[in-house]
Design brief:
Shape: globular
Number of strands: 4
Helix content: 40-55%
Order of helices and strands: EHEHEHEH
Strand content: 15-25%
Largest sheet: 4 strands, parallel
Number of helices: 4
Distance between the termini: 13 Å
Length: 111
């Protein structure tokens, strides 16, 4: 499974990556993760990914614009939006829950 993380704050992307890797190990699903802090770069590479996690506020382009560009050519790709601005209390727990639920659904769908 190829996963992209588009997030403004690189440190948060590392936390998200860590949580995705935990889940992939639990379900023995190999993942390749790419991190983007730039929305334009993410759009250039968009076709490589099965799942894209998008921060609602990237450095150069917002998540709605990214989503619209992706949906012009791909209605199947899974997009997950999150807001790092509001992730304060226990970011690992919040991210893990969101990612876990979604990846479990994707794994079940693929099997």
């Amino acid at each position: 499974m190829n996963i992209a993380i588009g997030v403004k704050n690189f440190n948060i992307s590392l936390i998200i990556q860590e949580e995705i890797l935990k889940i992939s190990q639990k379900f023995t699903v190999p993942v390749n993760i790419s991190i983007f802090t730039n929305g334009i770069e993410l759009l250039i590479e968009k076709n490589k990914f099965d799942i894209i996690f998008i921060d609602t506020d990237l450095n150069d382009i917002n998540s709605i614009q990214i989503s619209n560009c992706i949906r012009l050519t791909d209605n199947i790709k899974k997009l997950i939006f999150f807001d790092t601005y509001n992730l304060t209390y226990n970011i690992k727990v919040i991210i893990f829950r969101k990612i876990y639920r979604f990846i479990v659904l994707v794994i079940r769908f693929q099997n």
